Task: structure prediction
Amino acid sequence: MLFLFLILLIVLLLVLPVVTQISEGNNFVPGTNPFTLDGVGWIHEESSFIGRCMSHCAAGFRGIKYVQHSGPPPGSVMNENKSWFSCQCDETTSGLSDEDMKANIVATHEKGSSCGVFCCWVPCVCNCFGLPYLTTKDGSTGTTLGTTKYVCDLCCFIPKYDILDASDKKMYHLRPDTCFLGCCPRCRCGGDKGKCCRIPFILRNPSTLEPIKSGATKNGKDVNSMVDVLWSGWANECCSQKNAYHVTFPNNVSAAEKAVLVGSTLLVDVTMFEQEGDDN
Result:
């Protein structure tokens, strides 16, 4: 009976729809609460209860629609995910009205059901059903802006993504640095903003795999464009289901490319970090 309870507890930790807050700035102090920063946008998730349950053992499996809005998130959802345990059976987060879900839509990021990330280890399966992806569309016209796709190759233990434009041309490649002859992701310890022993995902040229610079400098060195995990303090890390990411965009990136890169960040969360019980 105890074993069954533990399995149920693990599954229920993952069945909460996400509301993500978007903030701007580069002055985050490690250990402070990033969720108190002024929000310039927010994203709500629409997905099924069964899909969220299945995603525990098949990361990226479920069909999802993320709707990205401009402006601060509704006050009714600002207390979401503050507890260590949450369960919700609805398709969207409680507290969101129909007006909230339709207000100031900037973009959508969506996918149908697909194989989970683990299928990358079984190429014949992922080739038939497809690996996780997110297609980003303009919120006003529904026009496709680009797509982020999980990539499977011989280095199956290295999570990696191709980021495509509206014509399916590769714009960027997103993956961590590697070690052990390219067989394992390289962990980073310390840093001004990130967690200890984290794995930053670096935005790269799709042909040369060289990191793309953000245009910013630090200590006289160019800063790479990346998706990194923030250290948000013990209270958030240990007692909530929230996770915070720092996204560094390339210099002079267009609004459409920014929207696609937001979708890329969401896919990284879905395929890599969601199963730890963390939500944005």
